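Hi! If you just cloned this repository, the fastest way to understand the data is to look at a raw example. We've pasted two of them here, unedited. The first protein comes first, obviously.
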Amino acid sequence: MELAGRTAVVTGAASGIGLAMTERFLAEGMSVVMADIEEPRLEREAARIAGGGGAVVAVACDVSDPAQVAHVRDRAMEAFGAVHLLANNAGVANGLPTFKTSPEVWQWVAGVNLLGPAYGVSAFAPLMVAQGEGHIVNTASEAGLCATPFLGPYHATKYGVVGLSEALALELAGTGVGVSCLCPELVTTRVFESTRNAPAHLGLPAPAPVDLRQVEKMMGTVAMDPADVAAAVAYSVRAGRFWIITHQATLARVHRRNQDLELGRRPHDPLAAPPA
């Protein structure tokens, strides 16, 4: 799909990959509706971009609320008359052992990570099918392809996004609407500080700053610049590619996970040494 002269909607657009996608889509000649729950930061970034001549509209949105997602759609249609690209990008993470995660935290993580993309599909896909053109990018994660300890809710929701994306691609074949599933490994974002946007009733502590250098060392990787991820997304939309993988290491980890499946082995930590 060509990008110039078209309109994109990006959730989680105030920071990280979402902000980088916003800036990349604008550079490609698109108009962008920026949606995010972090309203002060959203307004600040949108004002900065608009001050540089970017065609942006900012809409505060909690993607776990289908009414708010529908409001973003309506604002996009009012502002630009059509939506050609939807990036379901908003996401959160927690780092508790799975069996110690409360039902309320499960609801928060699932509401943002899985139901958010589902509500986005429900709101925007019918418009795209009716116009015979469009593309949906769902941000999953390497965590949607293989699992590690202490991120059970995150993995569960990101596996769900992968399944949602695969089913959607099959259903929309032949309609003119494409689908991509973005599965980044480590990227320079604030996903490890997600509790900054958690509902107050959860009582989660304010996040401490995370040193990505320590995360890189633990994972044996290098954090990617969000701008490079956004460039890969733009390329994949134009090329009609489904899988968007940011790190070659992901493919090796998925291969090992699939070997566990094929051989009937219990899952192992993909960051640990390979099994004998």
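Ok, and the second one:
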Amino acid sequence: MLLGAGATATEEAPLRSELFTADQMAQHGKNLAAQHELTFERGPDRLLPRLASNEKVLVEVGALLAANAEPHRRVTPAGEWLLDNFYLIEEEIRTAKRHLPRGYSRELPRLASGPQAGLPRVYDLALQVVSHGDGRVGRGTLTRFVASYQSVKVLKLGELWAIPIMLRLALIENLRRVGARIAAGRNSRNLAGMWADKMLEVAEKDPTWHAPTHR
């Protein structure tokens, strides 16, 4: 498993930047349009493989949380939410697969530089909306953001069509990152609990035993 007991917190941080108002998002759209440099050279489809990877991680996180959902073990609110809504996450992943034809993203204009270089421009817009909206996507704010972007650089029809699916992919990406953090924390707590149990077991067998201290 990707998230076994020896896993380390190497996953990317959740998509969380400064929370923007609708006005700030509109201005951000203009700023992004001015910054974006495009390449129309075709590259590999990176979105479908990432979706498959996100699905694998989320399934493993769900299995880990379910296996540890015992009355005496505290589950974080985020972990409880993932467990309670996992069926919805699975449905969103299935929908994303249906609406993202193989090779489709290769036809979209891609960024030539920056952190998302090589990825479709419209996917970066979706990441920005999720990041600055704390995972909440409002229709009015989204409409203003896209309109402001297009006041500087016009999006292609295929990009406008792709906005809903790119938002879904960005939200799934963020859930993967949050889930991986939750799993890493759960593994750490499980490891600490295991050693605590071992120490209690030893102490019960030998009341004179004391845990070693650092000097």
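That's it. A detail worth noticing about the second one: The chain has seven helices and two strands.
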